[in-house]
Amino acid sequence: MSAVLVPSVRIQRQDFDVAAEIAGMTQGRADIGAVVTFSGLCRDEQGALSALELEHYPGMAEAEIGRIAAEAVQRWPLQGLTVIHRHGKIVPGQNIVLVVAASAHRQAAFEAANFLMDYLKSRAPFWKKEHRADGSEGGWVEAKETDAQAAGRWKSPSE
User: Fold this and answer.
1) Is-contact 104 29, C-beta < 8 A?
2) Please, how many CA atoms are within 13 Å of residue 148, restricted to the half-sphere of its CB?
3) Which of 52, 79, 117, 120 could bridge 124 with an S-S bond, Cβ 3.0-4.6 Å?
4) Which ranges in the chain belong to alpha helices (H)?
5) What's the pTM?
6) Lateral strand order in the sheet of 95-103
């Protein structure tokens, strides 16, 4: 019987190195045939945004993301799974989120990464406030219906 994969979930203020995360997951592993990554960056919204501030409830965010990462491990045959989400003030061009999914074959890795990003965009417990480049008050970013619709495709028939 093989060991159960425990996903790595980190919520952190500091930046991350995408290449180092991939190397850490794959080094010395001959059972991984595919690694799919998604890295989300802060946009400047055509020059209107100077920063995006992300807030979360410590402990709750890790638990919720851990729960959905564990679900991904149940749904797909993964050899590795890492989810990193930053918090604090992030300026355009900087990393916000990283998902690294590794599997023997590409389809499982693609689907697991897509599943996690749909969840993170629609239901992860983060709040985003815009800081405007012109110094005016930026508002809290509302959830998008399109993100909720994308996540809806992953519901099991019992939901």
Assistant:
1) no
2) 4
3) 120
4) 18-26, 60-75, 106-122, 145-152
5) 0.89
6) 8-12, 78-86, 95-103, 34-41
DSSP 79: E
**Cα–Cα distance measured from residue 56 to residue 50, given in angstroms and rounded to the nearest whole number:** 20
CA distance 59 to 53: 18
| CA neighbor of 85 nearest in space, from 57, 110, 109 | 57
Q: Quick one: which of 71, 156, 146 has its CA closest to 116?
A: 71
DSSP 19: H
Q: Please state the φ and ψ torsions of residue 73, each to the nearest 5 degrees.
A: -65, -35
Residue-wise pLDDT for 97-156, tens only, equals 999 999 999 999 999 999 999 998 888 889 999 999 998 878 888 766 765 666 677 776
